[in-house]
């Protein structure tokens, strides 16, 4: 369901009615046409809200339907709620809701006691039930507590914890790695993209890739290896450990081309972060689109490396 497209259609109808208010009030045929279209869009949005557990907005829309010569009133209601619904559709669409809840649970488990979690969630008007704490796991407790909570509350909690950013893709990297340091780099990337600190976001994206590579290497070899700060060299040695180096003859030529592309990306991370990120004084600073491609590429590459490592581990 394309919520953004439906919003544009509702906005277009609102503009029509604003331009022809007298016709809407006086011309029954015109009123019927507008109301019919608006009822259709409103029902689709209501269905979306119900499917995504946006409880408060479902109730508001349900009370506003059917629209019968009160389109102007509906437009006022819609203008008050559409931003939150659109933001939800962008950040928690599809399977992202469960992923975000898992990320919230993981972050709260790492940073808070059970009582602190209750106080924190209570600040967002989340109902707290001791019944959910039947398993001695704060992570499971948070997941059970949030599973039926209003979607917009989930969004607000995720934003407060800096778990979502409109500029950064969602991944399972935090859960895959289980590393506080990696989680911290992901959070910093999102915070800095949100705050317009594009130099800093690039620096943390590079640090993220370094941390992921070193973590995988340590898990395979049993101890943390020395690292001289040369990211391309680190990538080559770790990619060989997980059979993701492009010279592997057992891998198809087409996939080897993709793996060679990863090497180019890593080389780009190293050069870009050295030249325009915040490690050095420089007159050249990245723009938003530069930082966005670097951060998102680091997320995709890092998740791929961890999944490849897990696959190789499980295969043996």
Q: Could you walk me through the main structural features you see in this protein, from its secondary elements to its overall organization?
A:
This protein has 15 helices and no strands. With about 325 residues, the chain is mainly α. The protein is elongated. The model has no long low-confidence stretch (mean pLDDT about 85). The relative contact order is 0.08.
What key phrases describe this protein's structure?
316 residues; mainly alpha; 73% helix; 0% strand; elongated
Top CATH class of the largest domain? Mainly Alpha
Distance between the termini: 42 Å
CATH architecture label of the largest domain:
Up-down Bundle
Q: Specify the biggest β-sheet.
A: none
Report the helical percentage.
over 70%
Approximate strand percentage: under 5%
Secondary-structure-derived class: mainly alpha
Provide a compact summary of the structure.
By secondary structure, this protein is mainly alpha-helical. The chain has helices at residues 3-19, 21-26, 28-51, 55-64, 71-91, 96-111, 114-122, 138-146, 151-160, 173-177, 180-195, 198-221, 231-241, 253-276, 288-315.
What topology emerges from the helices and strands here?
Elements: H1 3-19, H2 21-26, H3 28-51, H4 55-64, H5 71-91, H6 96-111, H7 114-122, H8 138-146, H9 151-160, H10 173-177, H11 180-195, H12 198-221, H13 231-241, H14 253-276, H15 288-315
Helix pairs in contact: 1-3, 1-5, 3-4, 6-8, 6-9, 11-12, 12-13, 12-14, 12-15, 13-14
